[in-house]
Amino acid sequence: MPEKGELNKRQQTATVNHAALLMKRYHHGDVDKVQHFVRVYTLAKSIGELEKLSDDDQFGLELAAVVHSVEGDKVAEAKSLLKDCGVSDEIAMHVCHMVLNAENYEHISTLDHQILVEAKLIVDFKEHNTPEKEIIRKAEDIFITNTGKLFLKRAFNL
Could you give the C-alpha distances from 121 to 114, 140, 154, in angstroms and in order? Predict the structure, then answer.
């Protein structure tokens, strides 16, 4: 399997689509879980593109957004799914780190991870009917990308 930087954009898109198909099978008929990962993926993809991530970082972000809702041993489940898609060990390790830490706001070290967290929070806020005060507090503490902040403001009329 090609290492980081060796997949062209078309191959990366095909790999992300394959991962999404496997996740739809993984959640086998649970419409809420499928819709959740699709929402997070769509939002993360848009934020990443608007924040002008490199192709490799965008690829990792999109994979993480697709597989972030695996359950149980998140690393083992995500790694297995990524292996089935032919993702290199290097990329799989980074994606698994983001998935494992998608709700750990203290250890965000890369922009793609930050964007995953922001996209997931926006979707979670909507799905859980989070009170406006809590949204504002978390926005101030966690959101750093201009696009994530803009999407959050527009989504909740802040």
Answer: 11, 13, 14
Round to whole Å and give the CA distance between 22 and 20.
5
Question: What are the tens digits of pLDDT across the range 14-29?
Answer: 999 999 999 999 999 8
Whether 64 contacts 116, CB under 8 Å: yes
Asked: is 9-156 a CATH 3.30.300 domain? The reply is: no
Determine the pLDDT at residue 118.
97
pTM: 0.92
Closest CA to 156 of 116, 117, 118, 129: 129
Cβ distance 114 to 142 under 8 Å?
no
Summarize pLDDT for 61-78 with one digit per residue, the tens: 999 999 999 988 988 999
